[in-house]
Amino acid sequence: MADLDRDPRLLPFYPLLYLAWADGELSEREADLIRQHVEAAGLGPEPLEGWLDPERPPSPAKLLGLLSSVRRLASELDRPDHETLTDLGVGIARAGGHDPDDAERAAVAGLEAALAVDVGEGAAAMLPEERPVAELPEIRPAFDVDGMTVWLDGDKHEIRARVRALIGSPPFESPGEIASSDYRELVLDWCRRLADEGLGALATPEEFGGGGDPGGFVAAFETLALFDISLLTKFGVQFGLFGGSVLQLGTRRHHERYLRTIGSLDLPGCFAMSESGHGSNVADIRTTATFDPATDEFEIHTPRVRARKDWIGNAAAHGRLATVFAQLKTNAEQHGVHAFLVPIRGANGTVAQGVRIEDCGYKLGLNGIDNGRISFDRVRIPRENLLDRFATVDADGAYSSPIASQGKRFFTMLGTLVGGRVAVGSAAVSASQVALATAIRYGARRRQFGAPGEPERILLDYPSHQRRLMPRLARTYALQFAMHDLQRRYADPDEERRPIEADAAGLKAVATWHATDTIQAAREACGGQGYLAGNRFAALKADSDVFTTYEGDNTVLLQLVAKDLLTGFRREFGDVSGLARLFVDRARVAVTERNPIITRRSSEEHLRDPDFHGAILAARAEELVLSLARRVKSRVDDGKDGFEALVDCQIHALAAARAHVESHVLDRIVAAEHGAPSSSLAEMLERLRSLYALRTIETARGWYLEQGYLDAPKSKAIRDLVIRLCAEIRPQAVPLVDAFAIPESCLGEIAR
Amino acid sequence: MADLDRDPRLLPFYPLLYLAWADGELSEREADLIRQHVEAAGLGPEPLEGWLDPERPPSPAKLLGLLSSVRRLASELDRPDHETLTDLGVGIARAGGHDPDDAERAAVAGLEAALAVDVGEGAAAMLPEERPVAELPEIRPAFDVDGMTVWLDGDKHEIRARVRALIGSPPFESPGEIASSDYRELVLDWCRRLADEGLGALATPEEFGGGGDPGGFVAAFETLALFDISLLTKFGVQFGLFGGSVLQLGTRRHHERYLRTIGSLDLPGCFAMSESGHGSNVADIRTTATFDPATDEFEIHTPRVRARKDWIGNAAAHGRLATVFAQLKTNAEQHGVHAFLVPIRGANGTVAQGVRIEDCGYKLGLNGIDNGRISFDRVRIPRENLLDRFATVDADGAYSSPIASQGKRFFTMLGTLVGGRVAVGSAAVSASQVALATAIRYGARRRQFGAPGEPERILLDYPSHQRRLMPRLARTYALQFAMHDLQRRYADPDEERRPIEADAAGLKAVATWHATDTIQAAREACGGQGYLAGNRFAALKADSDVFTTYEGDNTVLLQLVAKDLLTGFRREFGDVSGLARLFVDRARVAVTERNPIITRRSSEEHLRDPDFHGAILAARAEELVLSLARRVKSRVDDGKDGFEALVDCQIHALAAARAHVESHVLDRIVAAEHGAPSSSLAEMLERLRSLYALRTIETARGWYLEQGYLDAPKSKAIRDLVIRLCAEIRPQAVPLVDAFAIPESCLGEIAR
């Protein structure tokens, strides 16, 4: 083997020669390239003897010696230029006493170009300097961040801002590791402070000492989710569910007697609906309330273990009165589920006679809530404890109701409690915001990996990182506008209730699944840091997890939405014979929507057009309901009952419901855009709306391609645009999460 | 308004009349239908006067009266037949003293049929009896469950069975709510018991008192994940990472001195690689190890806060010696990352001089692990504490290594630690199994909702419930076979290492994301029950969450896979000019795979054909690598460096890597099928493999449709078959999870 240093004209080739061998393998082709270029520099093959045989590589010691030579010579240079390997080679050659001429330089550069793809490590790897450190780029909001906050907050800006200030101040501080028993008392204390601030009674009519502002109550609830979901839940159980049931299902005498002490938290209470055997299917609960005319009392009874009330918040420790749902029986006749007020503890905390309470014990999350199980052993309550807005029983036990149908009465009663679903869906958006704000602020600061010799790259500048967070940011904005619109309608007594109930069910399901998904993605985006309790994901993940289950299991809720769509469908098109008419209508519509010219349009302008987004999302929602109706009908025609027919089509029903909600959310964000307070805010929302819509379409593109709504090039154009939109939104990502106005103390420590 | 009871011939119409009005709305059409059929029964219109005017509905009291009449008459019957509303009507008419003739009966039946779709509530809703209760159907395994366990276990059946027996016995019991400090000691105690059983030293060569069975060690680790992931992690840190680093990176003198006491847990230790500033990008860590020839020592130093070792398991409380990764400097030259043994605590637990240890504090999960942060203030260690398998420093400070390239040396060192990724991927499969077994057993028992008058339906008989759990069950089986194949190759010294490293990275990412997804889906499938700590999801969710981050962040790992695929691609096709040749090859292949006849075949036989599955999953994997190579090349041609070019194509790189892993997993399950020990086991695996493959294709169908591998009817046929396969597997779902042989005490309480 030749000693390389016998000919200084080889010096400029050192870096390339080392790197070509560094992985221990040199191909024949690479060896040839080196030979050619060395010869082009006017050198013969001799000096490289033993260095270019793929079968017999130089020893590691030889290679390390070569590397040491490069480093030694480079260290003699003031600041070695290593932009390219040619620059480095020329530099060390000079340090070694040989100044390459133009031909030699060209030969080295030619070799570097020829080997380019095959040489993995760059010049920087040969000169193991510390990477340069770079400042973080300044973030310049392209819009008025405070203005965005006010816009997002909508007509309840004031109450939201008040609650944010409150939870951002002591004593509202996350406790870290804490025993459940202590946590429950801490949450009770927090809850008292909220009651003292008048927040608990916000929805209570003013004549009973409240704020008369149900919309404000939901806004306050939503905002609490930025801080602690145990507190949120305690607040919701006491004031929303327990207080709400007395207000909505009771009548004046109940209001007069209870609403003030409920709102002040002097009377802690429970909402006892679920049973061990029946969580979702509440119509089939088994607790009984049998009227006894002899004593003018109802007897509340748990006939079997599976009929015990289960998961009841406030039951295990603090509750004194409970709204209990039970099957009303009078004069030997059953009238279905009604609500009754049943004392479960005395003022001193002793459990009432005939009542048995177990603690549900340690849970996945929400360990600040004292969930319990309640059984009743023939507990007697006065007749007036029936919450009698929708049905009364007179002293003789005669039953009367303004609603004859048991089923309709039941759903009317449940309908008055729709606020719970509006509130939980809204809280899910808040939880998503905390997770995103933490991950995005962290991602905008943290660097990891980088090109050799360059500063490490900011995490949020990686496309995969943007792809994780930007579409979820867009969806969070979209859901926020949709939820606030729903809150407004919920609080407006002139709005029709039925669509509100359906939207509340659908948005609750979609928003809570979004929260689960977003919190997980954000936690993973923070790597190991995401695992520390101080960075908030621990509590967010564990506590918000229950959102998908409580106030209605999401799968059950989406089926309600689907049933409602089928009913609406039937109302619009009459009985099943109307289907034929519908097909004609659809065929006409389909001609427009599947127009090949539209199917193939893929200009960016078209792909960002709200009309395109609206039409294509609505088309999917409608088409899926239509096909669901057809499928259900064909099963009913085959003799199945309605329940079985719908169960058979469950997968389609869920898809139809989800598509409907996604289309509805798009409509809400488009409507918001039309009312944008400034052009810069409208511009931001345009990007978010486009990303929301296109990512939704991309996710469903299998269906769109199957149905002929997209052709392949358009589908690919949408995929590419999603990636580009992520990059387009990225520079404004921090201001966009700043606009959520989350108190610093509610963010993860890595984001403060 | 007429009194209905003036004509007993109206009695058989009562149920229909009530239900037609029950929702408070009657359409003109419905009113006409009723009139027609009442007339067909030979009655005039008079008796119904006031009952058929859509504008003026009967009062609720009237309707409740009608309902009471039906119920009163029905109660006089022995067991009223209410299969249909006609049966019920005829029955109550008889009880009321009128026996309808054939014409009347036909008229009632005709009306019921005509109103069918519009009448929501059935006869059962009118007679509020308790639902009938039904026994659970017997579960008959269609295959040998024990045989399946043995097959799944593979050649490490014995050790797996031993570990299962151990964790299924006291004192291995989940502690429920427990303070971190107590939990850490409990986990240490458990870990000692495992060491006493010889499990800790399983991978240690026999000459140092071990089992000489690295494959057995991974199998034991995998099995521990059925019980407690803190224990799993402690076990992995001590014996896998700390012990493994001494074994793999050290030489004989280190082995002789340390391996026995590590395996017995008499020397608890740490694996200190990650730093606060560098978790994923380990090559850029900043801890230094500078050789001082004057004293023959290395000086270990933490030059800045972000260079402290972070997240180090065993550091905060128990560890005494640590394998510390640091940048080796000698004679003013840097040689990259090397591993050193550094004492951090004395035998009495006192922290060593110059060492500073902080506790990471409370975490999302894994609170049985004492994670800590370690900083070094110029700590001196003897020269022999360099783990010197891949590099030595002599007394003069001269550095030598059998691997000249710093990058290659680094990856070779990391490569020897590949067992960690194999183990974590395997543990993720175990965690998925516990979640699925709990949810599937519960879902096979729990009933909720049902057709009126019918027993409630078993959860697992709902298509949506099947769809949640069956595809994840199939994927869990597929991943189990793939992981066990990888474990076998990992333990076989004759197998080529590089593909093992790439497969370990890819499978770890895919399996751990699968676990996160599956545990969440299983938890939601258990509703409120899923939220109770006793049902295991709390611990599973929180503890397994870290799987996606540790032993390599999943996104980073998939990028490694993509880079490896690009390298393999280059090896196969030479330099970039080979691309042209490749295009020709691909064009030829594409003709076959995109053959319209295949694209359109949608018979069930074809859709379940393993050749179809293999070809279509492989085509996607290959096509995506090809397009990735093209994209990277075009950016390099435009002058970007390799790092930037790959970052630009990151989204595609991740898709290509994932597709590659999915195709690889399919190949493993198909290979397993070929070696099935019996036809009934092969048959079960066929269903699971088909569901795995088709669900994977369904998820990627947007891409397949775009590329012309599927036409729309075939894509829809695949969707339908996925739903049917879920139903086909459902009756065997419980035996299939029983075959995981999870100790009862490791399952959720609802599943025992």
DSSP summary, beta strand count of chain A: 11
Main beta sheet of chain A: strand number and arrangement? 6 strands, mixed
Structural domains of chain A: how many: 3
CATH fold node name of the largest domain in chain A: Butyryl-CoA Dehydrogenase, subunit A, domain 3
Q: State the fourth-level CATH superfamily of the largest domain in chain A.
A: Butyryl-CoA Dehydrogenase, subunit A, domain 3
Query: Unreliable stretches of chain A, pLDDT < 50, 5 or more residues?
Result: none
Structure, described:
- The structure is a homodimer of 752-residue chains.
- By secondary structure, the first copy, chain A, is of the alpha+beta class.
- Chain A folds into three domains: 4-126, no CATH class; 180-412, Butyryl-CoA Dehydrogenase, subunit A, domain 2 (Beta Barrel), CATH 2.40.110; 420-751, Butyryl-CoA Dehydrogenase, subunit A, domain 3, CATH 1.20.140.10.
- Helices cover 54% and strands 8% of the residues of chain A.
- Chain A has 28 helices and eleven strands.
- In chain A, the strands form three sheets. In chain A, strands 1, 2, 3, 5, 6 and 9 form a six-stranded mixed beta sheet that branches. In chain A, strands 4-8-7 form a three-stranded antiparallel beta sheet, with no helix packed on it.
- In chain A, a hairpin with a 2-residue loop joins strand 5 and strand 6.
- In chain A, helix 3 packs across helix 4 (85-95), helix 4 (85-95) runs antiparallel to helix 5 (102-115) and helix 15 crosses helix 27 (712-729).
- Chain A is elongated, with a radius of gyration of 34 Å.
- Chain A starts with 13 loop residues before the first helix and ends in a 14-residue tail after the last helix.
- The mean pLDDT of chain A is 92.
- At the A-B interface, helix 1, helix 3, strand 6, strand 11 and helix 13 of A face helix 1, helix 3, strand 6, strand 11 and helix 13 of B.
